[in-house]
Amino acid sequence: MIEVTRRTVLRTGLLAVASAVPAMSPAATIAPTWPSSLVQAARAQIGVTTRYDPTYVRLAYPGGDVPPDRGVCTDVVIRAYRQAFGLDLQKLLHEDMKANFAAYPKAWGMKAPDPNIDHRRVPNLAAYFTRRKTALSLTEDFASYRPGDLVTQMLPGNLTHIVIVSSKTSAEVPGRPLVIQNIGAGASEDDTLFAYQRTGHYRFSPVV
After folding, report:
1. 32-202, which class in CATH?
2. In the record, which residues are listed under signal peptide (predicted)?
């Protein structure tokens, strides 16, 4: 009787402890990493942003954006960080530019920051990411480019460009990452990471 009583007490105690711990589903125990969230937010733009439109537009501030059906390569990055983390690169870059204007490129003859366009220019984003100490080495090693990384490129005609490294890889070359970008016909997922000169590599982790 004593042994049965002990077992009963132990079993009752374990059930009480178990009932005090909230049940967790498999999905809840494995939260997605920030790169996965960023890639998902970038990929969600495919089929929504269907045009490339570099027109200067007066934007709201903060949180300003052009209509979702259009934009440029930088808008893919800006929208992905906003959607995934509520992180506003328009505001972050503008505030840093106001405080450190001399640290940013002067290619457009700007004499003061402009929150309508500054964050939509690749060289400015590259300067911001570098100032945040997120720059990585440029290599030929596919494995160095992880999902969620940002890579700047120089397209023919000296056109600056930026992409988000995808979680998918090339069907032609095993292990070569695809990228999510707007290279002229809206948001798309393409095998062009090594098709153009790479000028910068960044891993900009949000605080989430």
Report:
1. alpha beta
2. 1-23
